[in-house]
Amino acid sequence: MQRNGGGGVAGGQPWVLRRIRLTWLSFMLFFILVFFPLIATYYLTTIDEAVGPDKRLFGPRPGGELCEAKHVQDLCRIRESVSEELLQLEAKRQELNGEIARLNLRIEACKRSIDSAKQDLLQLKNVISQTEHSYKELMAQNQPKLSLPVRLLPDKDDPPLPPPKSPRACRLRSCFDYARCPLTSGFPVYVYDRGAYAWAERIDPLVRQAFEAAVKTNIYVTADPSVACLYLVLVGELQENASPPPPPPAELEKQLKALPYWRADGRNHLLLHLSRQSVTQNFLYNVSTGRAAVAQATFLERQYREGFDLVVSPLVHALSEPNFLEIPPQVPVKRKYLFTFQGERLESLRSSLQEAPPQSFEEEIERDPPADYDDRIIGTLKAVADSRLDQVLVEFTCKAPRASLPTEWALCGERDERLGVLKVSTFALVIVPGDGQLVASAGCGMRLFEALEAGAIPVVLGDHSQAAVHQHIRWSEAAIVVPKPRITELHFLLRSLSDSDLLNMRRQGRFLWEAYFSTAESVLSTVLASVRTSLQVPAAPIREEHAREIPHKAGKLAGTDANLADNGDLDLGPVETEPPYASPRFLRNFTYTASDVYRAWNRAPGPFHLFPHTPLDPVLPSEAKFLGSGTGFRPIGGGTGGSGKEFQAALGGNVPREQFTVVMLTYEREEVLMNSLERLNGLPYLNKVVVVWNSPKPPSDDLLWPDIGLPIVVVHTEKNSLNNRFLPWDAVETEAILSIDDDAHLRHDEIMFGFRVWREARDRIVGFPGRFHAWDLNHQSWLYNSNYSCELSMVLTGAAFFHKYYAYLYSYVMPMAIRDMVDEYINCEDIAMNFLVSHITRKPPIKVTSRWTFRCPGCPQALSHDDSHFHERHKCINFFVKVYGYMPLLYTQFRVDSVLFKTRLPHDKTKCFKFI
Ligand SMILES: *[C@@H]1O[C@H](CO)[C@@H](O)[C@H](O)[C@H]1NC(C)=O
Ligand SMILES: *[C@@H]1O[C@H](CO)[C@@H](O)[C@H](O)[C@H]1NC(C)=O
Ligand SMILES: *[C@@H]1O[C@H](CO)[C@@H](O)[C@H](O)[C@H]1NC(C)=O
């Protein structure tokens, strides 16, 4: 309990008693020192006068003859003894003075040790309550473990389930064998190879090639049919003008039944028909597929089983990747034409199509004469064009119409010509076929996706058709659906929409197109994800980057110097008392396919990955943590609140306790790095330090790393790349990452405050150095700016907190072109991260506190100061804008300080932090 060993309460006497004695002593001393000399002087002066002016006692040393007189001798003796006594008293006085000083020192020491004992007591109480807390939590979690039923693999000769009365009645619940797809099975998919069925050879080679390439890279595909949940058969599309026509329905059925895992009824099979052409093949129309589901771009109402069959998008980019840089920018909102439409009704082609095989399909359409509004539509749109109120482009005949269904509006011209028109259209009209039998058609799908690709907002005229993956994608966020009877109000409606709404739709359309429909891989992933989501099976967990450790020698005792930490004399949190605590992972596996389906599908990055944690998890209401859901919470003052002292003792806030990981990128600056690491000693809530060793040269052998009482993981990298800073290393076990440059100098209280702020804004970048993007009026482009400014839009990742979620997105989801640019310039990775987070969240970053010394004085200059560095950053910004299609960064005008910063407090209260 007692910090200063010798300075305690000696002799067991209370210090109050000692003080009284001291006062008495001082009084005595005063008496002796002041009065005694006065009296003595008076006495001696009297003697002097008696012996006359020549024989003064207090003159020069008295002569021998003077002492001959007896009484004078007496006086001399007295004088000697008195002066001796005076000398003794003087010595005594000095001794006592020394004693007083010593005692004063002891008093001070006692006071200090009382204070520190009080502090220790507080901390001990804290530890005890923390331990109690953890113990209670452990007990609470000690519920009996619930596990899934044992997985039984169905036999090949399972008795077939009784089939539904009509094949049209198939739904997942009645036709799908859930037993093959337990929630934790991971959704294995078996894909039949082309040797398994005869008509595979007639499939368009480009479609087949694209499909096979996509299958190769898909992580759900398994080679073991006995464990598969889903069996995938590519059925089309067949080659154009296939010389033997598609097999007749009976023959197709026979071939399907012969598939090795068909098991009499085709349960858990998905027949996938990918169309590359606008001409619609629908040879499965009259084929009984049993319990197998069908995924294709064209469906008649009679054949479509809602919730079971799947509408897919046409395969536009079969093998090539779309070039994102050729996509027109999303701004300005208003383009040359308000809306455009080009198409032709192919009455002339009707007879030739009728001869083509699946005849019954065509007949089906014929039998139901379309009661459509097309004439009225044509009339109204032409009137709008003639009125010249707005520039519009509507053409109802074209030079080279593409083949299509008879009731459908055929596409005109070549793809490039069509895209050329769409790029200058604000809206693109999609008139769905007049006949109500058609639930979805490849032609309409093509129009829709070409519009999305070119950034023209689709306006779908007719509300009875289904767009691709409509079970999960909310199309109303990207396209406007107008019932045909509203055609006369269409112009008014389109004119009334605000720019911000239009840009939102355009951005959402771009996201949908890019994530789900832009390549063969994304189309296949989308089909599988849609089935998987319907079955509530979670996605495969996203990849972590394995951290290959470089062994290193620790041992240099890190400084315990208080100045090093510079806390402003505050305990910022538990240091020795809190063991390492990794953030819990994968708590919401089944949420994304249950209550969170909408967000998973309609917000970036889409439903394709399972993340261990995201910054978007919902927050409990405050009372829940006191009424049964308190696991992990550390409320301030146990829930009663408080200022500085209580605040420093608990994390508080709205989310459970956690720690953070420091990720430090370094390149051949060992001395600087060692100093930076040493400064982290004693930092509360720090879980681990990951040093990304960005140099091919390993650390020097004789380098002694500081021992800061925490693991320092030094990670080997394949190449020197700034992107390594954001790799989602498996060694990072917390949600919070503090990314710092090896030469950044942050004080502990700044880091602590940043961490606490980040906990309340988990989806943002929270950090220290702010920058902004400024518009260059001369060149009509963006400039990077680091001048003082009251508005900022970026926080540099040389010293910032962000969620590990964004490390996954940066490394695996963000367009590759951006990472390539970072590598090319060896610059801009922090700008790229700010773009990414603002793009996903549509929120600016948060800057915390002002007092901040970024670069360490005397360190070798970082490369960030020359002109070319700035020049590159301008270029980066403008390039990234091109890739995203718009400028994602947003401005912010505030900075965050702690609650009691600059508040006058009563003396018994303390601030949250001394300086911030
Ligand atoms: C196909 O349709 C025709 C006429 O609608 C019908 O006669 C025939 O049985 C159907 N074939 C199959 C395999 O269902
Ligand atoms: C959630 O998924 C992850 C990754 O597949 C797995 O490790 C974890 O055990 C799952 N959690 C539950 C509760 O099923
Ligand atoms: C920053 O401010 C200085 C002085 O006002 C100005 O000369 C300079 O051009 C500014 N830099 C940028 C990038 O705007």
TrEMBL record:
Alphabetical UniProt keywords: Coiled coil, Disulfide bond, Endoplasmic reticulum, Glycoprotein, Glycosyltransferase, Golgi apparatus, Manganese, Membrane, Metal-binding, Signal-anchor, Transferase, Transmembrane, Transmembrane helix
Signal peptide: none
Pathway: Glycan metabolism; heparan sulfate biosynthesis
PROSITE patterns in the record: RHODANESE_3 (PS50206)
Coiled coil: 72-141
EC number(s) reported in the record: 2.4.1.223
Keyword Transmembrane: yes
Transmembrane segments: 22-44
Topology class, membrane: Single-pass type II membrane protein
GO biological process: anterior/posterior axon guidance; chondroitin sulfate proteoglycan biosynthetic process; embryonic pectoral fin morphogenesis; heparan sulfate proteoglycan biosynthetic process; negative regulation of inflammatory response to wounding; negative regulation of keratinocyte differentiation; positive regulation of fibroblast growth factor receptor signaling pathway; positive regulation of keratinocyte proliferation
GO cellular-component term (any): endoplasmic reticulum membrane
SUPFAM superfamilies documented for this protein: Nucleotide-diphospho-sugar transferases
Catalytic activity: 3-O-(beta-D-GlcA-(1->3)-beta-D-Gal-(1->3)-beta-D-Gal-(1->4)-beta-D-Xyl)-L-seryl-[protein] + UDP-N-acetyl-alpha-D-glucosamine = 3-O-(alpha-D-GlcNAc-(1->4)-beta-D-GlcA-(1->3)-beta-D-Gal-(1->3)-beta-D-Gal-(1->4)-beta-D-Xyl)-L-seryl-[protein] + UDP + H(+)
Swiss-Prot/TrEMBL cofactor(s): Mn(2+)
Domain Rhodanese residue range list: 186-208
Role according to the record: Glycosyltransferase which regulates the biosynthesis of heparan sulfate (HS). Initiates HS synthesis by transferring the first N-acetyl-alpha-D-glucosamine (alpha-GlcNAc) residue (GlcNAcT-I activity) to the tetrasaccharide linker (GlcA-Gal-Gal-Xyl-)Ser core linker. May also transfer alpha-GlcNAc residues during HS elongation (GlcNAcT-II activity). Lacks glucuronyl transferase II (GlcAT-II) activity. Important for both skeletal development and hematopoiesis, through the formation of HS proteoglycans (HSPGs). Receptor for REG3A, REG3B and REG3G, induces the activation of downstream signaling pathways such as PI3K-AKT or RAS-RAF-MEK-ERK signaling pathway. Required for the function of REG3A in regulating keratinocyte proliferation and differentiation. Required for the inhibition of skin inflammation mediated by REG3A through the activation of PI3K-AKT-STAT3 pathway. Required for the function of REG3A and REG3G in glucose tolerance in pancreas.
Similarity comment text for this entry: Belongs to the glycosyltransferase 47 family.
Assembly information from the UniProt record: Homodimer; disulfide-linked. Interacts with REG3A.
Protein name: Exostosin-like 3
Gene of this entry: extl3
